[in-house]
## 1
Amino acid sequence: MIPYSSLHGYAVSSDDGSVADSQVMNTGGNEHTGTGREDTKLGLLDSIVNRDSVEDRRRITERLAYFNDKAPVSGARPLDGENGQPPWPVSSGIPEIPGRDFNDPALRSAMATAGCLIVRGYFDSREVAAYRDVIDRVMELTDSTEESRRHSQANPDVFQNPPSNLTDLLPEPKLGNARSFNRKGGSALCVESAGVCEHLLEFFERTGVREIVLNYLGEQPCLAARKWVLRRPKTPIGPDGWHQDGAFMGAGINSLNMWIPVSRCGGDSGAPSMDVVSKRLRHIVGADTGDGIFEWSVGEKSLAGVLADADIVTPQFEPGDVFFFDHFLIHRTQHADQFTAPRYAIETWFFGEKNFPANQVPLRW
Ligand SMILES: O=C(O)CCC(=O)C(=O)O
Ligand SMILES: [Fe+2]
């Protein structure tokens, strides 16, 4: 697998201000030498604004409706067969690999050893950094007053254009609760904008992500409306956020999360990264001990047990990097006394199309 960043160099204009100030950092040795595609000539925002919002809405509605008559069927998952995987050669910290060296066996080995993998410079850093404006637009609309929300519903904006069946699939108060939970933490469901969803699916396809996910999961991948999230976390960030996503999605699923930093974070950036317990777990710990913030949190005692033979790692990320993990990894948004810069990220959970978490509202790919 050759990373997208080495295959498709191109120039992105920053004079329209649409590219994040963090764009200049890149660790992956990307070459930006090409002449550019439509997206980048136009600017990412414009290319999304120019999409057919009626068609995008129809497509996302259909992707969701595909699962109306489906129930999850459990089957073989990569994590069940991990004993035969060659261990990752480095025994501590988070496995890391440059995008140019990434391949499917590396992902399987890292997952089997540490439950996660950082791929440095997989994407073109400037292309990813441009998503910052997209996240701002979607969050602006979901954060706005009820009145302006009603107004935007009457005049659909591509950045607030959810699929028509979302309210049936998440009947109130579920949808309202999901929206306010995200709003309070500084995030928004990607499905608030069918155009952003379709654009991202095209981006994932074009950059080889679909193939990676398909090969890893060993079955057709799908996504989920509730676990596809645009993030700009609000500060201060509390210390109690430790969790395993499997605690609320279900342990038996087949999953791979691709967390994409859209701006520089961690290290000396002043922006929150993620705190990660680098350890392969195959079960849910401590969701029910009562000492966590939510019923699905990992509480202090459970965490202490896991940390007996594992470390907390807080990586520094640059746009272009990818962080893969599954529903058993213990992590939280980085906790620190003070952050001075915002952090943008796109969290996309992929699931097996057969072995999917029904409560997360699956979406066909
Ligand atoms: O972006 C973050 O800080 C948290 C993301 C997360 O919890 C996840 O991707 O599962
Ligand atoms: Fe999470």
## 2
Amino acid sequence: MTTPDKNAIAAELTRSRARTALLTDAVGEDDLTRQHSPLMSPLVWDLAHVGNQEELWLVRDVGGREPVRQDIDHLYDAFKHARSDRPALPLLDPAEARRYLAQVRDKALDVLDRVRLDERPLLAGGFAFGMIVQHEQQHDETMLATHQLRAGGPVLSAPPPPPGNRRVRGEVLIPAGPFTMGTDTDPWALDNERPAHVVDVPAFLIDAAPVTNLDYLAFIDAEGYDDPRWWSPRGWAHRNEAGLTAPMHWFREGADWHYRRFGRVEPVRKDEPVVHVGYFEAEAYATWAGKRLPTEVEWEKAARWDPETGRSRRYPWGDDPPGPEHANLGQRHLAPAPVGAYPAGASPLGVHQLIGDVWEWTSSDWHGYPGFCVFPYAEYSEVFFGGDYKVLRGGSFGTDAAAVRGTFRNWDHPIRRQIFSGFRCARSLA
Ligand SMILES: [Fe+2]
């Protein structure tokens, strides 16, 4: 990847802010301040939190400037208040939050103008700015998930994704051998993606495409949700406690399944990757199908390893940044695309839709790579290592291109399914 210059950095900051505005201008004051689910913050909290992180890092740390609103730091510290408690805090109202964001952005752009990008490690390749761009885009995806949980009519719209291709089916053999996982060189890669290290991986088979709704309906029809044989003991206990019977947002009318998507009710599309399933559901499906979930290592080798050169690519299709022909990213469409919709985005060995559409659950626990170093703060990822989290890879239709790549790692509790999460299966050869 070429190192972004100041113009490119400013353009990324502006692009993120346009998305934040789109997501928060789409609803009125009441929807901005209300909590749509105990799993989520009120949208107005995300809004001001985005500004507060930008103030902390770009204005105060990088710029060395006076605080804009030090008095509100504690309100927007994600570690001080659980999401469920945030509506009761004396938060900035929507108009105040918007003014605050604009004030901070003015100062951040001024800092960008004046700072030398080779001054200190935090600024190398524009990293501090890239971290803030990714942070805002990550909250935009969270806000999109809040939109999905909001009751009421549609307020967001987007064209449908491109059509699929039924021939993308079956499994792809990834031969045994070493590959380079993680990165030392990607300028905006986060600490948990580093360092690059070689991993020797036994041969395995991986699904050419994510598991579709048609595949998943077969599991439902086979009474997979009612058969403890397919579930891990923890998964089965959770299935019973939560009363799981289908992916989140699905409901049945007669024989037909529908889902509610951003305020619209639609019949379940059979050729689309299944979305809004938790880790335990993915694990149960895989067991029922005679397969398993891929490890994080396997997922990354399938996504990045080029058998011709032995090199690890930045994306499955190569090192070029994602274009609309490669992957369904950035809320360009408000749904995963049908399987086979992105032939130009496939890996050299023919694995499709690894980037975009749905986050893919892996069987790996969340931990740091060998030689991990905190950069620039432990609360980004290190404090979560070893917790009750599973790794997800690849980004979803709601993930921006700036916030995903072949090395990017996400993590969440195995019971979570308000995120745009799906999966694909793998198998060992032996
Ligand atoms: Fe945050």
